[in-house]
Amino acid sequence: MSTDKNKKTELRIRVEEFITRMGLNNSQFSISIGCHPTYVGSIDENMKTDTIKTINRIYPDLSIEWLLLGTGSMLKSDEGVTAVGDAANAQHGDGNTYHNGADAATIDRLIGEMAEQRKQYSQQIDRLLTLLERRP
Fold it and tell me: How many helices (H) does the chain have, and how many strands (E)?
């Protein structure tokens, strides 16, 4: 089965929705989280845990659950939760001025849920491919 590297994944689409909502472009967002300016274009469903944690520190109002799973509201403030800090004041690279968003346990739980979803999707695809191969 071939994959299309240019195909936008659900995770990448959600990242781009957030970028648009924040009034940024893909390069600005990528640089703000310490990545190459073209990083957003390469996002697939396997975003590194460290990158997720950095996004959470830089953009504390972003719901990590929404980002990873697509459930709930994009912003915590939309859910009536007040997040401390803002991305414009967050400094990257010096270890200072980061604000707390979701805790590490929540991020780890969500990453685990995302991995389980991906496993289930993979199993479903395998079953479908097996059925298609059996067709005359």
Answer: 5, 0
